[in-house]
Amino acid sequence: MATEEAVAAHGPTAGEYITHHLTHFNGTGHAQEGIVNFHVLNFDTLFFSLGLGLLTVLVLAYAARRATSGVPGRFQAAVEILVEMVSEQAKGIIHDARSRQFVAPLALTVFVWIFLMNAMDLLPVDLLPRIWELVYGAAGGDVHHAYSRVVPTADLNATLGMSIGVLLICLWYNVKIKGFGGWVHELFSAPFGKHWALAPVNFATQMIEFAAKTISHGMRLFGNMYAGELVFMLIALMGGAWVAGSGATGPLLWLGHILAGTAWAIFHILIIVLQAFIFMMLTLVYIGQAHESH
Question: Running DSSP on this structure, what letter comes out for residue 34?
Fold first, then answer.
């Protein structure tokens, strides 16, 4: 009991702070630090990803309703630039005009959605988790188990879920463009040739390619956002450590926290946009490959 009171009085250690912030709220009370777990739902990831997905739809719908043929305002001009950029990328990769009617809006939605999810990393590390602790505690819950991770793309379950969604779309277009029989024939005849002895090797190669593209698609986004989230936590620890600093150490730690946090946030804006763009481009590339025959 005395030990627990001492911990409560002095606050968590650096390791406990990071572990708490890397643990998902999933009802188990156990750490799920970015790992894939098919029998546990990370409610924080679901809440923020679905909420930001709804916000994406509302923003794009608002832009469509407010669009005019006259001189556009700043918001409409920004959306038009974004739409034109995605449209040009889709046109250069997917040559089927009918397919682009679905794929181009899909790519636009993916870009905006992932951008918003990534941008959650720019919020103060303790802001939303502290609000959740107050709400959870007011509802009678144990605040020590009020876990909350607010960056959905820093959860491998979310990024792999999105990449699997892209895989399913690719499989759909493979069947739609080539026919089911034509696609199955391609699975056993490409890339090494149509000889019957090469069929098992061709099929294994195709399966490995599908798996590699899907896993790398999700892992790339997760890895970058998870690392960025962890750096923000380490910077936040520097800011919290100034309280315990003595002499000139405290103010220096506080100043270092401000400077490092500002510099990393500015640099992280590039990562946020770039990772959303890369995921969107790979989505277009993979769907474009589904339109091609070996």
Answer: S
Phi, psi values for residue 246, rounded to 5°: -115, 150
**Contact at 8 Å (CB) between 12 and 22?**
no
CA angle 194, 214, 157 (to 5 degrees): 155
The residue annotated as part of the active site, out of 99, 220, 246, 293, is 220
Identified catalytic residue from 87, 224, 246, 293: 224
**Alpha helix stretches (DSSP H) within the chain:** 2-10, 14-21, 43-66, 74-93, 97-119, 127-138, 156-189, 199-241, 249-290
Q: Which of 66, 69, 216, 293 is catalytic?
A: 216
Q: What is the pTM for the complete model shown? A: 0.89
Angle at 262 between CA 261 and CA 267, to 5 degrees: 100
Return the pLDDT at 10. Answer: 56
Amino acid at 114: I
> Over the stretch 85-113, which tens digit does the pLDDT of each residue have?
999 999 999 999 999 999 999 999 999 99
Domain locations in the chain as residue ranges:
2-290
Q: How far is C-alpha 200 from the chain's CA centre?
A: 35
Backbone angle region of 193, left / alpha / beta, with phi > 0 → left and psi within -120 to 50 → alpha: left
Q: Is 216 a catalytic residue?
A: yes
